[in-house]
Amino acid sequence: MLKVHAKKLNAVEILSLEGQIINGDTETLRSAVQLASDTSDIILDLSNVSVVDAHGLGVLLQLREQSLANGIHFKLMNVNDPLSQVFEITRLNTVFEIDSCLAAPRVLMAA
Asked: 52 vs 101, which has greater pLDDT?
């Protein structure tokens, strides 16, 4: 079961995900991103995500597109090595903005 923990820093919404982003378990993530519509940035923290399947990648792409269409910057952070390999194999590392760690002061200064 995917858990989403939301934290807002000024106009930046950080969604810390825990579990698997897989088929049948993405509605919580979709809802959390839709609720964050009044922000300038959405950052998904994937440090506690163990698996992303093809459906999960599709959902991440949809959420990115929806966010960008609404003028919201969309970023992934703390992508562990196994997930990083998935993003590289699928070449989605060229689509998503991926940061290795959150630098809260930098995020706040940029906002």
From this structure: 52
